[in-house]
Each structure stands twice: as C-alpha cells, then as structure tokens.
Amino acid sequence: MKKFKALLLSFAMVLALTGCGSKENNDNAADVKTESDDSNAADVKSEGVMTHAEYIAAAVDTEVVIEAYVQAKQSWWKDSTSGKEQATVYAQDKDGAYFLYNMECSEADYKKLTEGTKIKVTGHKAEWSGEVEIVDATFEIMEGNYVAKALDVTDLLGKDDLVKHQNEFVSFKGMTVAPSKDADGNEVAYLYKWDGSGQEGDDLYFNVSVNDQVYNFTVESYLCGSDTDVYKAVKNLKVGDTVDMEGFLYWYEGANPHITSVTVK
Amino acid sequence: MRGLRKKVSGLLVLAIAGSSLLTGCHGSRGMTAFEIPEAFDTTKEYEITFWAKNDTNKTQTRIYEKAIEDFEALYPNVTVNLRLYTDYGKIYNDVITNISTNTTPNVCITYPDHIATYLTGTNTVVPLDELFADEKYGLAGSELRFDAPAQEQIQPSFLSECAFDGHYYAIPFMRSTEACYINKTYVEALGYTVPEVLTWDFVWEVSEAAMAKDAEDNFLVNGQKVMIPFIYKSTDNMMIQMLKQRNAGYSTEAGEIQIFNETTQELLYTIAEHAKTKAFSTFKISSYPANFLNAGQCIFAVDSTAGATWMGSDAPLIDISEEKLVEFETEVRLIPQFDPERPRMISQGPSVCIFNKADSQEVLASWLFAQYLLTNEVQIAYSQTEGYVPVTIKAQESAEYQDYLARAGEDNELYYDIKLKAAQLLLDNTENTFVTPVFNGSASLRDAAGQMIENVTKSVRRKEEVNAEYMEKLFDNVTSLYRLDQLESGGVAVGEKADLGELPQTAVVLLASLAGVWILILAYLLHGLMKKRKANQKTNH
C-alpha cells in the first residue's frame, strides 16, 4: 500500500509540476522549405474539388474547394477575444499555389501540417491588395505528399506574367543588393520595417536589382523570425552583394516576395 | 510598404487563465500596493523599460528616442529601454503574458480597455491619483527637473478617459479621432457638393451613384475596373459611433451588454444593402482605404486622423506605385453623422500606464518618465507626426503649436494640409467626442461590434440573404464567439475579479488528478480505519 501511495503522490506531483510549468506553445516560428521534390506523379483531384485553373477562374467571394500540399506555415495564433485558433499557410499543387489566410486550425492540427502534407481546403476566394487568397477556410488532412521545387522567376520580374505564379515557391538568381535609405538618409543594405522604423524581430526590407530595375523584397518575420538563417543572412548583406534567393511570391499592391533563403555568391 | 496584415500571435485567453494558475502554483498573492517614497533616490541606478507604439513611422521612433535621451540627461541615474510595437493588440498580449511572471514593462503605451484586463491582477497597475497630487513629484511638482503640465493643464475630457473604478490608471499621451477623407473631384463629377458635415444618407447616395458603369464595364466616375466608393478602416468604430449618434444602446458603464438591439439591426440592414452593390467595403475585406483613395478607386475613406499622412495624391506617405496614383482634390470632414447639428465621434489614441514593481523608487522613476512624455517638447513633436492632437492644453496653446497649425499647406511634409486639417477637426470637436465604457470584457464587445459589420458585408457579397433569421443567428453567434453572455452574467466591473473563461486542458487534468488523489487518500484512510475497527472487533470478540 505504501508503494501505491507513493506512486499516487508522485503522479500527482508530476501533474502539478506540469501545470505550474506548462507554457503554451506559441509556435509561429518559420517552418519553411528545406528541400524540393521532383515527383512527377499525376495530381488527381477528389470529386468536387477544383483544379487550379478552376480556382483561378472562380470569382472572388465564391466558395472554393481545393486540394493542395503545405509548402510553408506562416503563423498560428489564437484570437485574444474570441479564442478562435487560426493558421496562415502557403500551399501548392503541381499547377499553382494557394495562400490560406487565417484558416481555422487548432494548435494540434497546426503541428501536423508539416511540409508536403496534403490538405483539402474549403473556404471563400478573396483578394486583399492584389493578394488572391482563401479565407474563412476549414481543412482536412489527406493522404499524399508533395514538395514543390522553386521555380526561377527572375526573368519574369517586372512583367505581367509574374502574377500567374502568385504565392508559388520561387527563386531569384544573380540579383544584386541595392541600397535602401535609413532614417538618417544613409545608404544601407536592409531596413527594419519598410521605412526603417522597426527594430530586431520586425520584418526586414531590402532592395535587389537585376537588369537595372530595383525590386523590394521582404523577410516576413512571422514566416521567418529573427532566429532563422535567412533573417540573419539578410542582416549580413552588403550593398553590391550578388545573391540567389528563394521564397514565396506574396503580393501586396504588386509583387512582394517573402524570402526564405538567401545565398551570397 | 505597410501592408502586411499582422495578427497578434498570442494565446491571450490561455495566458490569462494560465497566469492565475501560475500565481496559485507559486503562492504569490500579487504585488504590495505602491507608496510614494519621500524622495527620489538619485544615488542609485534604475533601469526601466518603455513599451511604446508607433504607426510604422520613423519620425515617431526618433521622437521616442530623443525623449529618452533628454530624460536620461535630466536623470542620469535612470536608463530607459525602448521596445517598439506597431500594434496595440500585440502590446496587450505581451503584457498579459508578462503579468504572470512579474516581468511587465515599467511604462507602457496602452488603451483603457486593456488596462481593465490588467487590473484583474492585484496591484499590477499603479493608480495615479496620489502621484498626480504629490507636491514634489506630482504633475508640475516642485522637485521635477522639467516643465510638466499641472493636472488642470491636461485636456479634461482626455484625462477623464483614463479614469475608471474611481481612480486614474493612466495618463493620455496622444489623441486622435476618425475622419472621412474625400475625393472631392469625384464627388463633384457626380454632381454633388461636399457638405460641411457629411451625413450617412449623403455618403450612401453618392456611393451608389458612383457605381454606374459603361458598356466596357468601366466605372464612369474613374474609367477604371475598380471602384469601392466607401471604405471603412475600423468597423468596430463604425458600429460604435453609429450607435452613439443614434443614441442607441451599446453597453452600460457597469458592463451590461446592450448592443443587440433594433437599431443595430437597422444599421446592419443598411450596411448590407450597400455592401451588396459593392458600394461599401472594409479594410479587412479589401485593404487600406488610403490605397484605394489614392488610386482613384474610392471616394469616401474613413480612417484615423492618425493616418492622415497616407491620404491624398500629395500625401507624404504613399503605399501604391506611381503608375497607380491618381491626381484629385482631397477634402477632410468629420465622419458621417445622423444629426449634423449634434455631431458625435470617438476619441481614441494612446495612453500611458505604469506597472507596479517591488522597488517603489523604480516605480517613481517610471512615473517621472511617463510625466516627461507630457512636456511640450514631446507632445508637440509627436503630434506633428500624424493627425494627432497634444493632450495638454499647455501644448495646444503654446506659440509653437499655434504657429504649426497656422502653416497648414506650406509643404507636403510637416505642414501637409490634410494632416493639419484632420488634427484641427479634433481640436474643434473635442467636446463632441466620446469613449465607450471600460470594463473587463469591453475589448471583446468592441471586437463583436465590428465583427457584425464584417459578417453582413461578407455574407451579402457571398449571395447569402440577410433577413430576420440571419440577424437572430448573427447575434447568437457573436454573443457566443466573444463570450458576451458570460460577461453579462458575471458582473465584470473594472477592479473585480472576472470569470476568465474555460480552464485550459492542462489545468483541467491537473485539478482532476488532484481531486482523484484526494479521493484515493481518503479511500485509503477509510480503508485503514475500517481494518482497524475490524481488528478491534475481533479482539473484543
């Protein structure tokens, strides 16, 4: 009986300590692509599920049902007043990409959304400042896995066709880091926030050029926080560096790539 | 590029519940109430943290930094560490998380609604009444090393917004309201004249008129494929102000929820009607009103006066490409009104609270810094960064500020006329502003108010019918989502302990296991007792 009592008390103590020390996992750190998959298997949709072309053709505000594969998780959060749990995710099938904004998602399910996981998503098509996305969505996890290769879109920069690859995992090759102006008018390689008003942990903005045109790229701090390699790498950039980059082709009043890796050549 | 929609990524509900559990685990009973020290100890070093909010505006950051530098020069034994946020919600979440670990900042920019939640902790936020009145270190006190305003020199209505439960828990820092930024060129092209005071009827009528298209599906008024004539940034404020203007229920001071009434329904039907034609949309659904306004794709853009520097063809801050920018004449007016003779608009803007610490000298240092933010130097400089208004009469009436106001339109930077006109709107209408009651749960009610507008707008765009049945369901859903029914039954006046909602799973498991252990211990004792009794009975036999 003594043994039983000791066991019981130990069990209770373990649980009590768990309660004291438990820390809710606010996992909004980057979970971005590390490798590509060259699978060429056909991407067959289930019944009632749209192809990517049908999704693109669908009008804004209509209900859409798609199947795609998680490429990166941007963030998970719980609304402070309503308690709603939501996730923002980049997904892609073999024909194109989908941005799943604030999709209903428990913290436990968020953990299951690893790179390549196939999901069926039901929501409404929306457009916010040019970014086409699925909102008010729910999802279910399906059998299947696919990780997209980065598509080189360097030559499409500044061209109308670039938008066709919105939200896709893409790469930019041989671009040159161009100067940005900080709060004191100095030329720098990157800024915290678009105007330099931020600080460590905030989004990083930097300019890169190719063919004499300058483009503004971002390290989105929810997608890739200050502890990620890309965040640190961008902070080490120097004006004039030649870089290869990968990331997601986010859109905000025009192309606004969210970079997930950068390599100085 | 300010457009990335950030969302707070916290676990507020769990954090609040978790904080009470942690408090229980560690046996803490909260802080001891702050008492003002006899004198500020200048021989000891103090390091304080200041969590501030800026509008993604580098000038604001520099003003904070300069204020800190100047303050530290006056008080060399105090170091102020600045942490910047661009989102009030994120500050709120971080504070809540840090209350449980006693790692709150010393000085924090905040909203009164948020302080109401902070007050659920014991002596967490320092009441300021005695500090205000302290002869030496109080407002304009004799021992201050700077020229601070006296209490009567703080705009009374702004100061009163920081008082609840019979005490002051904050000082106002900046004030703004909402304004309607208008493409006057298009209003006139449609055959209308912008009135001195906009009415809702006028805005709806012009908005519908702007929806006319040509045979190629281009809007006649702008010749483009896109036109959303009326966009509202904060739908929370939209509903709150409409209800106030109609003298309809929102909530009582004590926290009784009154928003689910016939006027609310009537307003939602009207909004739905114009959302259905797509003459009306919201920031959450479409994007920043300023982007559409500046692209000639919006006629009435309602946003904060603290967003004035983004509004208009000549705005100092523009978030769209040059090719999209359209030339037009911009006008600024009060938000639309139901009764132009009695305009009502919300008062908003950051306030500053001070968190309690074990060392009263550290709290005093915090108070000195908070008070420094009310000096003319800080007040005037910060107000000029946007359409803010200084919260002190002392700053408002100063020659420097009057000169600033008089120079509207001299350039498109510091003297950008739209920004100065927006600030002037608030200065001229301070007595027409209002704030909503503050209680633990008022932040949820505010969210619910906006959510109803977002929902009906989305629903009609998705071809759903908005009728009586829909309204009933909407009210039920919003009540449940924001736990407003729990607020009503719980009695949630500020300063009282509130029901913090459902316990997290870990807590439920912990409590259940503890209960289980007690049951088993009792069972074991009972078993032992019975065994002893049986043994005794055997002996007796």
Task: Outline the fold blueprint.
The complex is a heterodimer of chains A (265) and B (541).
Chain A: H1 2-21, H2 52-57, E1 63-78, E2 85-92, E3 97-104, H3 107-112, E4 117-128, E5 131-145, E6 151-152, E7 169-178, E8 180-181, E9 187-188, E10 191-192, E11 204-210, E12 213-219, H4 229-235, E13 242-248, E14 258-264
Parallel strand pairs in A: 6-7
Antiparallel strand pairs in A: 1-2, 1-4, 2-3, 4-5, 7-11, 7-13, 8-9, 10-11, 11-12, 13-14
Chain B: H1 12-26, E1 46-53, H2 58-74, E2 78-85, H3 88-99, E3 107-110, H4 112-118, H5 129-133, H6 156-160, E4 163-164, E5 167-168, E6 171-172, E7 174-175, E8 178-183, H7 184-189, H8 200-209, E9 230-232, H9 235-245, H10 262-276, E10 280-282, H11 289-294, E11 300-304, E12 330-334, E13 345-346, E14 351-354, H12 360-372, H13 376-383, E15 389-390, H14 393-396, H15 399-406, H16 417-428, E16 433-434, H17 442-461, H18 468-481, H19 484-490, H20 505-540
Parallel strand pairs in B: 1-2, 1-3, 9-10, 9-11, 13-16
Antiparallel strand pairs in B: 3-14, 4-5, 6-14, 7-15, 8-11, 8-12
Helix pairs in contact in B: 1-3, 2-13, 9-17, 10-17, 17-18
Structure description:
Chain A is mainly beta and 265 residues long. Chain A folds into 2 domains: 3-145, Nucleic acid-binding proteins (OB fold (Dihydrolipoamide Acetyltransferase, E2P), Beta Barrel); 151-264, OB fold (Dihydrolipoamide Acetyltransferase, E2P), CATH 2.40.50.140. Chain A contains 4 helices and 14 strands. In chain A, the strands form 3 sheets. In chain A, strands 6, 7, 10, 11, 12, 13 and 14 form a 7-stranded mixed beta sheet that branches. In chain A, β2 and β3 form a beta hairpin. Chain A is globular and about 55 Å long. With 541 residues, chain B is of the alpha/beta class. Chain B has helices at residues 12-26, 58-74, 88-99, 112-118, 129-133, 156-160, 184-189, 200-209, 235-245, 262-276, 289-294, 360-372, 376-383, 393-396, 399-406, 417-428, 442-461, 468-481, 484-490, 505-540, and strands spanning 46-53, 78-85, 107-110, 163-164, 167-168, 171-172, 174-175, 178-183, 230-232, 280-282, 300-304, 330-334, 345-346, 351-354, 389-390, 433-434. Chain B has a 5-stranded mixed beta sheet. Chain B has a 5-stranded mixed beta sheet with strand order 10-9-11-8-12, with helices on both faces. Chain B starts with 11 loop residues before the first helix and ends with a helix. The chains are: A mainly beta (265), B alpha/beta (541). The interface between A and B is large, with 56 and 67 residues.
